[in-house]
């Protein structure tokens, strides 16, 4: 997966760091609060750290574009189907998890839905870093439809990210080795193809390129069985399933039994606001153009270069990142405007965020959270996230401006909390992304 964020996966090959949270900047007379994990083993500080590592990985990938050969994404035809999608908060991750059936007969797994990943992979055993053996593993020997991909194939040499160069013979299996810095994550294994069962009638998507990971480490991988690749790639599951998919993310703190959905094929709700997708054939990421951000109806003074991918800026929509990361000029403008609107609400200290508030101490008549809007390219492409998506609950009675500061020059990333309670439809053929606010229940 071009891995990501808590789970996270593929993150930080290089250490291009996000700057926020690394400077302890706190404003006013702030009282310290103890950080309480949102779920066992996963505090908000840990999620923020993992998002920094993921952002560093994305930045490193974008900086190295052009040195990586890869065929352009090709999409296969497939019937419409959908998978339930649930928040990983209760299992200790900041990602969303989909149930996935693979093999013949089908074996069931829980995978991170990741728009930044090329390769779908599943644990096949092992572990690492002192981790306990996984409760579920993909048993390739039990699948009649599993077929190894040889290391001499174009799929291995051109399409599989981080494939190993060693190839002892033409029929030897294609191996991969994702390694990450800063104690984030890694996974190693071999690549094959298999079928995925996608409906109650046992309809299948054939020839899914699948990594069988025999070794992995990183806390992220303790809660999921692997990664479901939704990136712009010839070998991603999104491409194999037809190149038209949508997801709707429930509130990340919704009740444990609340589910959204991940759908493939036609049938998304209409009408949708649409904006062009900016696709790079050498990268799995989904770029969009931001024209302006407004707070309380006023457009913020943010340099246009921040939103221009040609000038080392740009914006990526990423389901695998939890918290939104904004390049420094955008971050400073957004938090200044939001904090101005929240003046008078008592502030508290709550790492790793810069602006946090004791919501239970708000005086009667205190201002509400200012409305934030994002104007994407396209006259009707106005994104209006709910206030809880950018001023987020981090502890009982405590809210923080839930964005992180990224380097400039550098890419901005809209994470999954910012995207929650919206339907997002990605059309790889037409190179468009559509969105609309909705309850995300189906």
* Mean pLDDT over all positions: 82
Query: Multimeric state of these chains?
Result: single chain
Structural class: mainly beta
| Count of alpha/pi helices | 5
User: Could you describe the largest sheet, including whether it forms a barrel?
Assistant: 6 strands, mixed, barrel
* Residue runs with pLDDT of under 50 for 5 or more positions: 1-41, 67-72
Radius of gyration: 21 Å
- Count of DSSP E strands? 28
Please report the distance between the alpha carbons of the first and last residues: 27 Å
Strand content bin: 25-35%
Shape: globular
Q: Roughly what percent helix? A: 10-25%
Strand order of the largest sheet: 3-4-10-5-9-8
Explain what this protein looks like in three dimensions.
- The protein is globular.
- A 6-stranded mixed beta barrel has the order 3-4-10-5-9-8. Strands 1-19-20-24-23 form a 5-stranded mixed sheet.
- The relative contact order is 0.19.
- The chain has 442 residues and is mainly β.
- It has helices at residues 44-63, 154-159, 237-240, 328-341, 416-419; strands spanning 31-32, 81-87, 96-102, 107-114, 120-127, 147-148, 174-178, 186-197, 204-217, 226-229, 244-248, 260-264, 273-276, 286-288, 290-295, 298-299, 315-317, 324-327, 347-349, 356-358, 372-376, 382-383, 391-395, 398-401, 403-406, 412-414, 422-427, 432-437.
- The longest helix has 20 residues, at 44-63.
- The protein starts with 30 loop residues before the first strand and ends in a 5-residue tail after the last strand.
- Mean pLDDT is 82; it is low at 1-41 and 67-72.
List keywords for this structure.
442 residues; mainly beta; 5 helices; single chain; disordered N terminus
